[in-house]
Design goal:
three-stranded mixed beta sheet; about 70% helix; 3 strands; G-protein coupled receptor; olfaction; olfactory receptor activity; globular; receptor; Olfactory_Receptors; Rhopdopsin 7-helix transmembrane proteins
């Protein structure tokens, strides 16, 4: 750590206006060239299905009075919104990696991508916790459920989740981009994410790495300690797919393993794609609502 600090301080002394980075080059995922077309098609299909699946859940919860009157389904509908946008922030950049198009992203674009990625991702984390807490109350406190969890409280908790996500990303983005970047500008990753960008900083990143470790690490690991997650298999499945890769990447800030990109695909691409399937197939009320919507359209 000391040698790295000295090296970064030495780099800082040589910064000039002529060497300030104005854009970054996203190197993307590593893949065999002969699989380029197949991977393009796979990620394109995943993106389309992710958008359609989450949009269907969102519209179903909104249109069916039986669903949007219950906190559990309100939370499910709200979760679909960041799922759709998170996929839109990440997957198009991955798809671009399989084309001859330029891999450059302006400095401002990198800031925006990192901001929305962590804003939506952290909000998802808080929503998962709320959904698990709701299921815990419904299963373990059924007689008091309507008192402990109602529509008004659910709305307040959802608003707090979005505010908490905003606070989290404001701290992370500010700490990341207040550092000087004087080159190189090649990000060895498929998006602008904190660990990959920090490796290019021309200053000591010890504080950043510590804040990232504490902030993301505590949030991720503490969720597994909550008894609420043990009451619902679907939540446990989603949270495992989402949090385990996060822990693998963010609790190892100095890692340069080529596996990091492949692992990150799970929580950035696979989880938003699987959420509609997991929650729909395991939720009889949502399936019944989908059947009613289909029957209504057919009847028309």
């Amino acid at each position: 750590m000391t040698s790295r600090k000295n090296r970064n301080m030495g780099k800082t002394k040589n910064i000039s206006l002529d060497t300030v980075v104005t854009d970054f080059i996203l190197l993307g995922l590593s893949y065999p060239p002969n699989l380029r077309s197949l991977l393009f098609l796979v990620f394109f299909i995943i993106y389309i299905l992710t958008q359609l699946g989450n949009l269907l859940i969102l519209l179903t919860v909104w249109a069916d009075a039986r669903l949007h009157a219950r906190p559990m389904h309100i939370l499910l509908g709200v979760l679909s919104f960041p799922d759709m946008w998170l996929s839109s922030v990440i997957v198009p950049r991955i798809i671009l990696n399989f084309t001859p198009a330029s891999k450059a992203i302006p400095f401002g674009g990198c800031v925006a991508q990192l901001y929305f990625f962590h804003f939506l991702g952290s909000t998802q984390c808080f929503l998962y916790t709320l959904m698990a807490y709701d299921r815990y109350l419904a299963i373990c406190q059924p007689l008091r459920y309507s008192v402990l969890m109602n529509g008004r409280l659910c709305t307040v908790l959802v608003a707090e989740a979005w505010v908490a996500g905003s606070i989290h990303v404001s701290i992370q983005a500010t700490l990341t981009f207040c550092l000087p970047y004087c080159g190189p500008n090649q990000v060895n990753y498929f998006i602008c994410d904190i660990p990959a960008v920090l490796r290019l900083a021309c200053a000591d990143t010890t504080v950043n790495e510590l804040v990232t470790f504490v902030d993301i690490g505590v949030v991720a690991t503490s969720c597994f300690m909550r008894r609420a997650f043990s009451t619902c298999g679907s939540h446990l499945t989603v949270v495992t797919v989402y949090y385990v890769p996060c822990i693998f990447i963010y609790l190892r800030p100095g890692s340069k393993s080529p596996l990091d990109g492949a692992v990150a695909v799970f929580y950035t691409v696979v989880t938003p794609f699987l959420n509609p399937l997991i929650y729909t197939l395991r939720n009889q009320e949502v399936k019944s609502a989908l059947k009613r919507m289909t029957a209504g359209r057919v009847a028309e």
